[in-house]
Amino acid sequence: MERSHAKALDDQDPLREFKKRFVITDPDTCYLDGNSLGRLPHETVKAINDFLHDEWGREVVVGWGHWIDEAQNSGNLIGRSALGAAPGQVLACDTTSVNIYQLASAAIKARPGRKTIITDAANFPTDRYILQGLATSHGLNLITIDNEDTKVSENELITPELLEKYMSEDVALVSLQVIQYRSGARQDVRALTELIHKYGALSLWDAAHAIGSIKLELDSDGVDLAVGCTYKYGNSGPGAPAWLYVNKRIQDHLQVAIQGWFAQRDQFAMGPLFEKDKSIRGFQIASPSIIGLRCINTAFKMIEEAGIDQIEKKCAVGTTLMVELFESWLQPLGFSLVTPKSPERRGGHITIAHPDAERISIALRKYANTVADYRTPNSIRLAISPLATSYTEVFDGFARIRDLVSTRQYEKVSVGESRVT
User: Fold this and answer.
1) 3-state helix, strand, coil in the chain (%, to 5)
2) In terms of CB atoms within 10 Å, which end of the chain has fewer, N or C?
3) CB of 370 within 8 A of CB of 186?
4) Which of 19, 385, 33, 20 is nearest to 212 (CA)?
5) CA-CA distance, 237 to 132, in Å (whole number)?
6) pLDDT tens readout for residues 84-119
7) What's the first-to-final CA gap in the chain, in angstroms?
8) What's the pLDDT at 421?
9) Are 231 and 240 in contact (CB under 8 A)?
């Protein structure tokens, strides 16, 4: 457990030069929260300034002549760089929450007569709340698998064997996360999707904590529907547009609930009745955020340049380093590991648990210049964002956690000091 080991990993890292391409105002900060919000690329600042001055400023409304299809163009970039998706299946638009509602409601409508939808207790709150609302409004039975119970599931994983206990010909939709937001566990997307299809149901995957950290193969895995954000490992900025994926084989069979004019077949005819466009644009609601899309374009071109294979390898090495440091330094201090130990079963973050996790997380920012995040009831998430984080930064961050807890300095802070955790 020497710092020289982390330095050697950095020296051998094919992605090491990418860190210089991000805005880092304090080089001493250990930023281990890229799974929540990624750093700002320098090129994004230039791209936005150029857009404001050279396009919006000069062209005004005439700019829509080349802005009109940017949601599809940015979607294709996201698809080829990070999702394993062929063109014409991804849109960069709206928010993850809106996209979940749109696709989940469309999937339910596409399976008339079926009255059951399935999710899991450890799914992200937005996903669960939206599905609860849809179940209530459509008179459906929502099954929530209790994968928070360690007797039911290890590390919150949903295995095919566990899921099949709840499957039947009455299931219309199964909605799960690719990477569990809290534990960091990675689901077997292909095996679970095949099981869902065995019963004639549709799959909706939330890849918000996966995209930009692992290699996704939505097309070859047979995924029906997927959603995700762009501001975590995607480095596209707070509130940046999200994305949705609809496999081409089912695009004609789905109708989203919000029928916006961008989805109209002949958009500028301004006709009296809605006629859905046959392409992926049929799932778009309204005018895209061009500024937000430029942030996406800059960041995902970097992902494409780096290569998702190399990105996944760095996540595996970086989280392995984290697990080793945890076992040597943090486990003796009362921490436990919530994330699977096998690199292929996790993404870009690990989660450690401690009874005083909330105070420790606050104190890390306040006293140790180290940024992680806290998740109820007792978890601290720590990530390596492959393009913006060095192995040395990981090593130093874990050393600061060790020192903060061993000296009990974290006891100076109170629970609830920060609303945002």
Assistant:
1) 45, 15, 40
2) N
3) no
4) 385
5) 29
6) 999 999 999 999 999 999 999 999 999 999 999 999
7) 29
8) 81
9) yes
Angle at 158 between CA 326 and CA 345, to 5 degrees: 40
Rounded Cα–Cα distance for residues 391 and 139 (Å): 50
For 303, phi then psi, to 5°, come to -60, -45
Residue 206 neighbours by CB distance under 10 Å: 26
Angle subtended by helix axes 42-50 and 290-306, to nearest 10:
140
Tell me, what amino acid is at 305?
E
The C-alpha atoms of residue 396 and residue 136 are separated, in whole angstroms, by 48
Are the C-beta atoms of residues 314 and 15 closer than 8 Å to each other? yes
How far, in Å, CA of 16 to CA of 371, rounded? 20
How many Å apart are CA 175 and CA 364, to the nearest integer? Answer: 35
Q: What is the CA radius of gyration of the chain?
A: 22
Give the integer Cα–Cα distance in Å for 367 and 81.
38
Q: What does residue 24 show for φ and ψ, rounded to 5 degrees? A: -130, 100
Q: Report which DSSP code applies to 41.
A: B
Give me the pLDDT at residue 314, please: 98
Q: Which residues contact 342 (CB under 8 A, 6 or more apart)?
A: none
DSSP E strands in 131-287: the ranges are: 141-145, 171-177, 202-206, 225-228, 243-246
Angle at 235 between CA 234 and CA 240, to 5 degrees: 85
Lookup: tokens for 261 = 């004019």
